[in-house]
Design brief:
By secondary structure, this protein is α/β, with parallel strands linked by helices. It has a single domain, classed as Aldolase class I (TIM Barrel, Alpha-Beta Barrel). Helices cover about 35% and strands about 20% of the residues. The chain has an eight-stranded parallel sheet. Helix 7 packs parallel to helix 9. About 50% of the residues are buried. The structure holds ribulose-5-phosphate and fe (ii) ion. The site of fe (ii) ion (FE2) has 6 residues, from strand 2. Belongs to the ribulose-phosphate 3-epimerase family. Its cofactor is Fe(2+); a divalent metal cation; Mn(2+); Co(2+).
């Protein structure tokens, strides 16, 4: 298991001042950018041009979470846009192994996401191809949703499979992560934590990043 990392999602930040919003969280390890196409999920955010502008505005690496159809064709554009980590959904990829290799070859960390009802077991042998596995803890599409405790057993099973295969793959959780729920995720074996509304609704978002980190460290 790697060290605890906190990756605030800008989904609930002020889209009119994203550079300023990102400057409020200098303690973040990554900035999580939720790309939604209104097809894979019923919500629409932004595309590679906007992500490229954000990448130019910060030194913090970008962690793209692509909730888009036809990931095989569309994901490489986000490496070109300057994202240091690119996550595609397995439900949207026709050839996940080829896509993960393509992302790595282009110079970014390759990551694969599972929706709450998608099991990890069919993908056990893919773990070595991935730099990170994202287990969603809400149905993707919107920020501010309630954390789904039913995802915790899958986090535990994913951690056990990573240990069994001896891989260095990071285990990220995304959705409803807060001071109240982060301990459960860390105890189950997650080491990378996305938090959107918890961070951007705090009076001082950077203090919240530090608080989330210490709570996860205590529990992990
Ligand atoms: O991928 C996402 C939604 O599909 C977001 O990253 C996630 O929901 C973050 O927001 P919050 O912490 O408010 O749940
Ligand atoms: Fe996300």
């Amino acid at each position: 298991m790697g060290d605890i990392q906190i990756t605030p999602s800008i989904l609930n930040a002020d889209f009119g001042s994203l550079a300023a919003e990102v400057a409020r969280i200098p303690g973040a390890d990554w900035i999580h950018v939720d790309v939604m196409d209104n097809h894979f999920v019923p919500n629409l955010t932004f595309g590679p041009t906007m992500v490229e502008a954000l990448a130019r505005s910060t030194d913090t690496p970008l962690d793209a979470h692509l909730m888009i159809e036809d990931a095989d064709r569309n994901a490489p554009a986000y490496v070109e846009a300057g994202c240091a980590s690119v996550t595609f959904h397995v439900e949207a990829a026709k050839a996940p192994v080829r896509l993960a290799r393509e992302i790595r070859a282009a110079g970014a960390r390759a990551s694969m996401a599972l929706k709450p009802a998608t099991p990890i077991e069919p993908y056990e042998d893919l773990l070595a191809e991935l730099d990170m596995l994202l287990i969603m803890t809400v149905e993707p599409g919107f920020g501010g949703q309630k954390f789904l405790d039913l995802c915790l057993p899958k986090i535990r099973r994913a951690r056990a499979l990573m240990d069994k295969h001896g891989v260095e793959t990071w285990l990220q959780v995304d959705g409803g992560v807060s001071l109240e729920t982060i301990e459960r995720c860390a105890e189950a074996g997650a080491d990378v934590f996305v938090a959107g509304s918890a961070v951007f609704s705090a009076d001082d978002p950077d203090v919240m990043v530090a608080a989330l980190r210490s709570r996860a460290r205590e529990a992990g």
